[in-house]
Write a structure and sequence with these properties.
The protein is α/β, with parallel strands linked by helices and about 425 residues long. It is built from ten helices and 21 strands. The model has no long low-confidence stretch (mean pLDDT about 95). The chain binds adenosine-5'-diphosphate and zinc ion.
């Protein structure tokens, strides 16, 4: 089935301007050249910057009139990436997310509160439709507004939550202030993903709430959530191999590595019409777990993601590149070139501090001008990168100077 679907995907890819060129360079003119799954190795790797280069239509393999939705990447500055979906694509994504939910033992009797952001970000809509298809009662609460979330959980007897691990910890810390007690709620399960977290954090959240936590992995280039999910055995995430072909590569050489070795996850869509993506470098480091799963599913499992190969930061579940913050910062008049970013955990949430040098003329004793500049910077970053930073202004020359590659990011979040 994978081979058949791979050929179909290559056929579709050949309809896009981007892959027609790429595949020709690799000596592939037709899907007939793919004789076995091993021939996948002949296909070029696709990177995030390739997707940016192809923006907006370079990867579109169907007529625009057959497209029914698009999602773009969370990065709102620079060139985003776009994934188009046909009716078929949305239907199969829904099927995959429904499968995830059913694999955790949830079903028609459950009430599903979806605390991920709805919109261009795939976190919200992805599981939403799957949960409906699996027959759960869906509360599309979206992210944030903790008081209202708790009120909804209590009034509608929510049993299953979908959120980032940071937000789950945050809600727990806010319970008393918001005037709720856990024993008034009816929580049983949570699907947590969108950012890395450790096995310890999972166990901690399970203990704090008295629920089961299931790891959920996805990325917008591969639809979004619903790529890989834990079943009731909570031992690695089944990756849906009828929809995604997976292989691990050594990030430095690009060569395939053994399944039980840590490597970068590379994925090919097998069942997508509008935006076929071949051998996509996810940047995510994991291993493929050996052996079968007692649940009986034959889709292989990936281990918890242990890191990323690039400098992408995940702040409260939102992806941010340091270069994106730099661009936003440098657009503000009065900001000089040297800056540094610090990330810390404050309570359960991530806090970003932006230290930046500003023009010397600004230090004239007029504090209100400096305050205005701070606010301006914080708002510019918030609007572009979706996180409101703490801003510190410094005189030129005050921040460390780098002679080699600048180290701008200090990540003080505990490594679990
Ligand atoms: P999403 O909408 O799923 O957050 P993005 O494309 O914005 O999609 O982000 C995808 C990235 O988020 C992944 O490549 C990975 O680095 C990270 N991620 C998502 N889920 C998990 C998870 N369960 N564990 C670790 N990292 C995750
Ligand atoms: Zn299983």
């Amino acid at each position: 089935m994978q081979l058949q679907r791979l050929r179909r995907t290559v056929e579709r890819a050949l309809l896009t301007p981007f892959y027609r060129r790429r595949l020709a360079q690799a000596g592939l003119k037709s899907s007939e050249d793919i004789l076995s799954l091993d021939d996948l190795r002949r296909l070029p790797l696709t990177t995030k910057s390739d997707l940016r280069e192809a923006y907006p239509d370079g990867l579109l393999a169907v007529d625009k009139s057959d497209v029914v939705r698009l999602h773009t990447s969370s990065g709102t500055t620079g060139t985003p990436t776009v994934i188009y979906h046909t009716r078929h694509d949305l239907d199969s994504w829904t099927e995959l997310t429904a499968r995830c939910i059913l694999a955790t033992g949830a079903g028609r009797a459950d009430v599903f509160q979806n605390m991920m952001t709805y919109g261009l970000f795939t976190g919200g809509l992805g599981l939403h439709y799957g949960a409906e298809r699996a027959g759960l009662l869906v509360i599309p609460s979206g992210a944030g507004n903790t008081g209202r979330q708790l009120r909804l959980m209590k009034d509608f007897r929510t049993t299953v939550l979908h959120a980032t691990p940071s937000y789950m910890l945050h809600i727990h810390a806010r319970l008393p202030e918001e005037g709720f007690r856990l024993d008034e709620l009816n929580l049983k399960k949570a699907y947590l993903g969108g950012e890395p977290y450790s096995e310890n954090t999972r166990r901690k959240i399970e203990t704090l709430y008295g629920i089961r936590v299931y790891n959920s992995y996805g990325l917008s280039e591969m639809n979004g959530p619903g790529v890989a999910f834990e079943c009731i055995h909570q031992d690695g995430m089944h990756i849906w191999e009828d929809a995604y072909h997976v292989v691990l590569i050594a990030p430095d050489t690009g060569r395939a590595c053994a399944d039980d070795h840590e490597g970068e996850l590379v994925m090919t869509t097998l069942d997508r019409e509008a935006t076929p993506v071949l051998r996509y470098r996810t940047g995510d480091i994991t291993t493929l777990l050996p052996g079968g799963c007692p649940c009986g599913r034959t889709h292989r499992r990936i281990a918890r993601i242990t890191g990323r190969t690039d400098d992408m930061l995940i702040l409260n579940g939102v992806n941010v590149y340091p270069s994106q913050i730099e661009q936003l910062l440098m657009r503000v008049p009065g900001v000089a070139t040297n800056y540094a970013l610090t990330i810390e955990k404050v309570g359960a949430l991530d806090r970003l501090t932006v230290k930046t040098e500003v023009d010397r003329q600004l230090f004239t004793g007029d504090l209100s001008a400096l305050d205005r500049l701070k606010t301006h910077i914080a708002e510019a970053i918030k609007s572009g990168a979706l996180i409101r930073p703490v801003v510190e202004l410094h005189e030129p020359g005050a921040l460390p100077v780098f002679e080699m590659k600048a180290k701008r990011v200090t990540d003080l979040r505990p490594k679990e």
